[in-house]
Amino acid sequence: MRRERIWAIHLATLVTLAAWAGLDPLFLTMVRHAPWTDSPGAVDWSRWVGFASLVVFAATSLAALLLTRSQRWRIALRKTSLRQLLAITTVIALWCGLVIHHESIAWQGKRVRFVWRVDELEAIVAPLRNQWPERDGELPATGPFMAYPFGRPTTLVLLQSPALASQHVYVSAIERCDDGAIKLQLTGTDGGDWAEWHPPHSRPISFVGGLADPHHLRAATAIGHGWYLVRYDA
């Protein structure tokens, strides 16, 4: 019975960490930066304490399972012991998969969150599709902005970044491409990437912004109704 409880604790820890990677917008920030080197307030200490606790639970329970297995190693292999060996091997493979693919899990979690934000993004972009500003101004959905470059602007730098309804996501700038695509630069807790609307036959690609800043395409995923969540390497 004790071994069954250890298995339950270990599997629960694995599932919890995988779910955390997909659900928490700050998960990647947390695992990339140590608490003593990160900028103050970027990630609260409770996240690191929780993460460290789960890692300790995982390591301790896995060690207990391996110890239990090693104590039976000298016993002749039977069907039950083979099943246990296969189970431990599978769990180790799952942990390796989580470590290797945690960024992909976090990316897909972010994609799901932005699927539910398409209507909010659409409210910002809809007025700009048919009437792109030619000079500095103000719009109800975006507030005041400055348009660059002068003469034929393709970039709107928003002076009061509009917030989406959830997760503290803000739009800091808007880019318009020659093919009619409109790109929103996202900041905030769940920001750091771009939300882009593309007309038919248009897809996210690398580009140079209106402020002469290059953006190299790293990943893009559709979130519906012509919208994409896009990540660039600057």
Structure description:
The protein has five helices and nine strands, in the order αααααβββββββββ. It has 234 residues and is an alpha+beta fold. It has two domains: 101 residues; 116 residues, no CATH class. Strand 8 and strand 9 form a beta hairpin. The radius of gyration is 24 Å and the shape is elongated. The N and C termini lie far apart (54 Å). 22% of the residues are buried. About 2% of the residues have low confidence.
Strand-residue proportion? 15-25%
Overall pLDDT confidence: 87
Major β-sheet strand ordering: 1-2-3-4-5-6-9-8-7
Taken in chain order, the helices and strands follow as HHHHHEEEEEEEEE
Sheet bearing the most strands, described?
9 strands, antiparallel
Care to count the β-strands? Answer: 9
Number of domains: 2
Shape: elongated
Spatial extent as radius of gyration: 24 Å
Helices and strands: which structural class?
alpha+beta
Low-confidence blocks of residues? 73-77
Keywords, separated by commas or semicolons:
5 helices; single chain; 9-stranded antiparallel sheet; 234 residues; 2 domains; 9 strands; alpha+beta
Write the layout of secondary structure elements.
Elements: H1 2-23, H2 27-32, H3 45-71, H4 79-115, H5 118-130, E1 137-139, E2 143-148, E3 155-158, E4 169-176, E5 182-188, E6 194-197, E7 207-208, E8 214-224, E9 227-233
Antiparallel strand pairs: 1-2, 2-3, 3-4, 4-5, 5-6, 6-9, 7-8, 8-9
Helix pairs in contact: 1-3, 1-4
